[in-house]
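Notes continue from the previous slide.

Worked example: a multi-chain complex. Inputs as given:
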Amino acid sequence: MTRIGVLTGGGDCPGLNAVIRGIVRKGTKVHGYEFVGFRSGWAGVLKNETTPLDAEAVRGILHVGGTILGSSRTNPLKVDGGIDQIRETMRAQQIDALIPIGGDDTLGVAKRLTDEKIPVVGVPKTIDNDLAGTDYTFGFQTAVQIATDAIDRLHSTAESHDRVMVCEVMGRHAGWIAAHSGLAGGADVILVPERPFDIEEVCDHVRSRHAAGQKFSIVVVAEGAVPEGGDIQSAFDTTDAFGHVRLGGIAMMLEKEISHRTGFDARMTNLGHVQRGGSPLAYDRVLGTRFGVAAVDAVAAGHFGMMTSLQGTSIELVSLEEALREPKLLDPDFYETAEVFFG
Ligand code: F6P
């Protein structure tokens, strides 16, 4: 009997449970596979901490946020003998292949395991939508909707108080969430990591609106946006096992600078993990399910070292190597469209 280990790594993401359900339902029903769920990402594989993963375990989870398997940012490549420990767990659990569901960090480990001849099929996950090799990742649309709803709410309070509202959204390397929610929410300025910003230009957009009679403005900023010639602004100094600094704080800096330079009242809001929580939109449930089904089919076909992806409207496999080469940055045309509405 073929046995497959499944894990979810990195930040959680709406739609993860849809992927897990897709893998297990197709895998048990059509391929006759058995599954082992690993707790808390690679940490569970290292420690051989498992949870039952059968048709019963995945009942009623399609609409539920988070991940029934738990997640962590544990990096087995930073653990002495980490790869041997993974092999040992696979041997102990009689596992034939692994399906890790995660972003560039989790899939970076998957790629390394592929190099070590361990059979792995990856599923791309990130609300940031910055993984190359796929047009979209599940969770992104839900995050954009949550951010757009928040921007709509900030609009009415901005207008009541004649304020500049600065809304910080997630997006470490790429401004997908900022650009999409900012465009959908009618933002007057959108700041993304791909385009270092000039604070005076930001203030000019605000001033020009006020000069034209509008007494409020909405600024949407990705957490990874940087001022021209400057560095990431974070209120934190901790880094995770993959070397990423914890982000958060650029909106605070913008609130101070905008009110200081323009004299207008400004307030910041950081949406933070609200963007990752709760029930996935239908789009993400569908995409997650399609990825899950395709991942287990890829195992059945022996297509290891690959990752599921969305190409246009089709689900296809791409190599982990190709997907991990560099982050997928925001399309410049998209930003230029959003820019039409600045100021
Ligand atoms: O998964 C990516 C991400 O959503 C980034 O945008 C953000 O910086 C990070 O996760 C936050 O992660 P954590 O939950 O570890 O604070």
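Summary box: The chain has a mean pLDDT of 97. The chain has two domains: 3-139+280-323, 142-277.
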